[in-house]
Amino acid sequence: MKKIVRAKLHGITITGADLNYHGSITLDPEICEQAGILPMEFVDIWNKDSGARISTYVIYGEPGSRCCILNGAAARTCQRGDQVIICATEYIDTPQIYDIKPVVLTFDAQNNIDEVMSYHVYETPEHSYNFRIQREQRPNSTERQVVNVDVERLAADLRARGLNDHAIADILSCHLNQFAS
């Protein structure tokens, strides 16, 4: 069995800390639902500002509140305004790695979802385990349109930076719809 990432909230901002509560982290259930994080589920929390790392369980707060509140002893590890990474994990048998697609959410300063991504592991003839990030959407951001891109010139530039043809093809296929003018 391998422990893998199942869901991740990347760069969510701490909105409060309640030392006198009985423990846990309080999260907006709307955010948790989109990521697939359940109430009472244990998560790892990594503070991007202080480097603190803790583990605790999730409780749901007020829907739509965009809350991220550390409670009890966990409240000593973060301050309001700190950015954290919250990671839910799962144990799988190694062959299942190709089937799981962890959801990764990134956030703006008000804890609105900025981007929805997923992680993908796939097999090629050259390597059993390859990895890519699939960008799904940016619900609260303006999309950047790329027009008149010289794909051959871009591929040559990526090759000059040390990427092989397989990696270049992966990059271009992930973003092919952006290259259409």
Biggest β-sheet: strands ordered side by side in the sheet? 2-6-3-5-4-7-1-8-9-10
- Kindly name the structural category: alpha/beta
Major sheet: size, sense and barrel closure? 10 strands, mixed
Q: What coarse outline follows from CA principal-axis ratios?
A: elongated
Percent range for β-strand residues: 35-45%
User: How is the quaternary structure best described?
Assistant: single chain
Query: Which spans have pLDDT < 50 for at least 5 consecutive residues?
Result: none
The Cα radius of gyration reads 19 Å
Helix content: 10-25%
The ordered string of helix (H) and strand (E) elements is EEEHEEEEEEEHHH
End-to-end distance:
46 Å
DSSP E strands, number: 10
User: What does the average pLDDT come to?
Assistant: 88
DSSP helix count? 4
Can you walk me through this structure?
The protein is an alpha/beta fold and 181 residues long. Helix content is 17%, strand content 39%. The protein is built from 4 helices and 10 strands; from the N terminus they run βββαβββββββααα. It has a 10-stranded mixed beta sheet with strand order 2-6-3-5-4-7-1-8-9-10. The model has no long low-confidence stretch (mean pLDDT 88).
Q: How would you describe this structure in keywords?
A:
181 residues; alpha/beta; ten-stranded mixed sheet; 4 helices; elongated
Summarize the structure.
The chain has helices spanning 29-35, 151-160, 165-174, 176-179; strands at residues 2-13, 16-18, 24-27, 42-47, 53-60, 68-71, 83-92, 103-107, 113-122, 130-137. The protein is of the alpha/beta class. The chain has a 10-stranded mixed beta sheet with strand order 2-6-3-5-4-7-1-8-9-10.
